[in-house]
Write a structure and sequence with these properties.
The structure is a homodimer. Chain A is an alpha+beta fold. Helix content of chain A is about 30%, strand content about 25%. Chain A has twelve helices and 18 strands. Chains A and B meet through strand 9, strand 10, helix 4, helix 5 and helix 8 of A and strand 9, strand 10, helix 4, helix 5 and helix 8 of B.
């Protein structure tokens, strides 16, 4: 930030990970932009699946590989380099700019949110800009106008008080692993719909025109399936894949464990079994209400032979934006200049709680311009960022901020 | 063994863990007994649940705590101490005795079995004696005449080729954790019966008299439930708990894992999910046939959205003995002398593959005299052996071997 031209930079301590905040307000009469990003990353495990070490950035095949290159440190860097260029050319930034980088995006943004609540005046801006999303594909610069919300849960089931020998006790005692399996088998029906009563009650229906526009995007099933590489596909009946990914809520198992996981055999009936799972939410769904419905249904489904500790680790609202507003059109034009390609308006299946919170708090447009690609392994081993998008992104963002001076 | 009076002792190298063999054949005209035990133990993990370290034997509350005290090193020691006493009193052992201690009982006894096949003449005996089972309860010395067999399986399910971001991909791709849950939910019906077609086909029916005798044993539901400490109980419909544990086959999950298991949240759809599970088998069931039926059914139940690697880690036959034979009566009398309590004939739910193999090979009686208690945490943290049983066991076994000289 300092080398980009910022002079006012703070590291703000929090209960967990500090925030980094910088601002430059030397463009009187010009718009003020609040740029948001995050420096925290998903766990790098399993480490042995990385081709090169997760925290040693390595250039290979036109990509840069490291945890955080796509999500989100590499994308933050695009903005800093664009701003640095503008500062070097003009001796000052063409607009007023505030930069807020947090360290808890992957775990619910709690400290950030406290900071925002206490610094509403300081953070006030005409628009919020975020680069923490993906392009639709290579050569398709994209502006994201919709995100799913995220609730994350953890449960612990306890059957026997202690681990038991499966020979001595097997056949007459409850196995919490089996209870866990039975529970999750009941959380989807055969049409891949979530069985939690009330789960879909308030889901906002999209207009026919919007569904048509989304399905007409140059979204490639071939690229999608190559990126996933599964033997087969499944999803909620009655919706296209793009709709399943962007405008439909889900319930997804993120981790399961219990019993013996080492080499060979251990004939144990474990005392406890664990699961981490999450629900992706879409406009209309209230995260607090969904969390209550999920817990209620889980407790109802479980047999009386196990006890359940149910934790809601985080909740996050869904979001969508009126993408016809002028700033979105400026962003589209700037992307065209940076990439020499027409930019499209898309939605995304992931979640950025901050976007929703900022939108609710400041009621200003939020422009999400992503430079990641869907197959860049965000959250997985060998995460990377395509360098061509990195460089085109810097050009596009420089045009965008320059152009906003005339908004 | 040396201090017990044996002079001929060998350590027999194998492909995995060596065997220990000793013999004393200085009692011409007297019966020859082959005593079998094992020095290998179940993994001690999770280590943090041990009150004192797993491999530092500690006496507490009249018990000795350490991995292997009950299963099976402590029980082997009872025989060595009894033999040492007899040798010190008589200057020689009263019978011919062969001792075979293996190191692979918990992982299928492969090396042992190769050794037995190549050394049939050397190992020949009039009876086999094993102490690797449990007493029915405190104050109830027991002779086990039936064991369940054990097949152990591991499966690996693969959905997407790599771990995926559950926001970006959730809703339109297969989740192998969900497939695993659905699979295991389908392997039991509502009556807790295993759904594998043909699983129960050849199960040998017990006579009414034998079922009556088993159900009349001083088996205590209270002790059982105190040992297990589960919020509720379940088991195959139509059978008593004792029958569920001893004479009915089971399918049991021993371990499940996949996805994120660390602190907090990771929004991942994992590429792979794993399970370890086992079937306990009863007389009439053929382990090879059951393994084939289980694999076939698992593959049939799985959706086409995941691939499955299916491994049979080990197979083991069930066993039961004609407990009216004279040597069993001698054992019962010796136990009465050691414990001042009437000994009972019981079955057990666990598996000792060696017993079956020896029985099939040598066609001699196998006498299983257990000194463990059901709640001594065999295979779990804080495994222990009740010292009163240890000392009474030494007395009983000394009487037994002494008495066999007159058989």
């Amino acid at each position: 930030m300092r080398s980009a031209g910022f002079q006012s930079i703070e590291i703000v301590p929090t209960a967990l990970h500090p925030l980094v905040y910088a601002e430059s307000l030397n463009a009187p009469g010009k718009p003020t932009i609040l740029f948001y990003g995050h420096y925290d990353v998903q766990p790098a495990e399993p480490l042995h699946l990385w081709t090169t070490p997760a925290f040693e950035p390595t250039v290979r095949n036109g990509n840069i590989y490291a945890r955080g290159t796509a999500d989100d440190k590499g994308q933050v860097h695009i903005h800093l380099k664009a701003l640095q260029a503008l500062h070097q050319i003009g001796g000052e930034f063409p607009i007023n700019i505030k930069i807020l980088i947090e360290g808890e995006e992957e775990v619910g943004s709690v400290s950030l949110w406290n900071f925002v609540q206490k610094n509403k005046e300081k953070l006030k801006a005409d628009a919020l800009v975020v680069s923490d999303t993906s392009m639709l594909g290579k050569g398709v610069p994209s502006i994201t106008y919709g995100l799913r919300g995220l609730n994350y849960y953890q449960i612990e089931l306890t059957g026997p008080r202690r681990d038991l020998h499966s020979g001595v006790y097997g056949g007459a005692v409850p196995n919490p692993l089996a209870a866990l399996a039975e529970l999750f088998a009941k959380l989807h029906d055969k049409n891949f719909r979530v069985t939690v009563p009330g789960f879909y009650d308030n889901v906002k229906q999209l207009s026919k025109a919007e569904r048509k526009a989304l399905n007409a995007l140059p979204w490639s099933r071939k690229t999608f399936q190559e990126a996933v590489g599964a033997p087969g596909y499944c999803g909620e009946k009655g919706f296209t894949t793009v709709e399943q990914l962007w405008i439909r809520p889900t319930l997804e198992l993120n981790g399961l464990w219990g019993g013996y996981q080492g080499e060979g055999a251990k004939t144990v009936i474990p005392s406890r079994a664990y699961a981490k799972f999450s629900t992706r939410l879409v406009p209309g769904q209230d995260p607090q209400r969904i969390a209550k419905l999920v817990e209620k249904h889980v407790r109802k489904l479980l047999p009386k032979t196990v006890t359940c500790k149910f934790e809601v680790l985080s909740t996050g609202k869904p979001w969508s934006a009126p993408y016809h507003a002028p700033i979105f059109q400026r962003a589209q034009a700037a992307l065209q200049k940076g990439f020499n390609q027409k930019a499209v308006f898309i939605r995304e299946g992931g979640s950025i709680p901050f976007v929703t919170q900022m939108y609710d708090t400041f009621e200003v447009p939020c422009v999400l311009i992503g430079f990641g690609l869907p197959d860049e392994n965000a959250h997985a081993p060998d995460e990377h960022l395509y360098l061509e998008n990195y460089f085109s992104g810097i050009k596009a963002i420089a045009h965008f901020y320059q152009d906003l001076a005339t908004l």
